[in-house]
Amino acid sequence: MTLTKEDMLRIEVVEGAKAIFIKGLVDAGEGNVSIRNGKREELFITPSFNKYLTLKKEEIVHMNFDGTPLSTGKLPSTETKMHIAIYKSRPKVQAVIHTHSEYATILSIAQKGIPIIMEEMYIFLGGSVDVSDFGKAHTEEIGQVALNTLAKKNAALLANHGVIVCGKSMDHAVKFAELVEKLAKIYWGTLQIGEPKVISTEYLERFQKLHNSLFANYSRSKKKK
Ligand SMILES: [Zn+2]
């Protein structure tokens, strides 16, 4: 059996979803994973109330950026609008993941972003992980709130809600979702024993090229609204 391009994208979503589930970043029924459909204004996204363990490629929902479903069967994730807002505004983003991973969500509830405490944040994510203003879940509002907080970066905390990450590939997005949770845990732990020391931006400038060439996914020509 030959797989179509569509099948391969669906499989990537399934694999991304299973990866974050196995890593403990989501429980059944929460979080969502999507991928852009090439140059079309379309995406493939995990279904609403996703049971990660048994997820199959046939359950992945194909949708147009205007919100029209292009497949029958399962309903799309209720947070599809946030994914679409990111794809529309960031043309180089190929994959988006949203989780409620625990330590990152703790910080999102304290509305505390993660300053640059480790070099890898700068290399992979493009800098600090900032926390958004509060936005109502499942609405376009949270899409805009997420975009504003992401700016040119690859990860943000959504106030009182969780994490949003975006990448040039599904592998990148999975890596970023894992990294945000690890950083949140480390930052939280450091706060328990003392005052976290932030790495100075001067020192980090040397990683800018590395970030730009490997992990950055914003359009460098236009960044005006
Ligand atoms: Zn959510």
Give the SSE layout.
Elements: H1 5-22, E1 32-36, E2 42-45, E3 61-64, H2 80-89, E4 95-99, H3 102-110, H4 119-125, H5 140-150, E5 155-158, E6 162-167, H6 170-193, H7 201-204, H8 208-215
Antiparallel strand pairs: 1-2, 1-4, 2-3, 4-6, 5-6
Helix pairs in contact: 1-6, 2-5, 3-6, 4-8
Q: What features would you describe in this structure?
A:
The protein has helices spanning 5-22, 80-89, 102-110, 119-125, 140-150, 170-193, 201-204, 208-215; strands at residues 32-36, 42-45, 61-64, 95-99, 155-158, 162-167. It is an alpha+beta fold and 225 residues long. The chain has a single domain (5-215), classed as Class II aldolase/adducin N-terminal domain (L-fuculose-1-phosphate Aldolase, 3-Layer(aba) Sandwich). The chain has a six-stranded antiparallel β-sheet with strand order 3-2-1-4-6-5, sandwiched between helices. Strand 5 (155-158) and strand 6 form a beta hairpin. The longest helix has 24 residues, at 170-193. It is globular. It starts with a helix and ends in a 10-residue tail after the last helix. The model has no long low-confidence stretch (mean pLDDT 92). The structure holds zinc ion. The site of zinc ion has 6 residues, from loops.
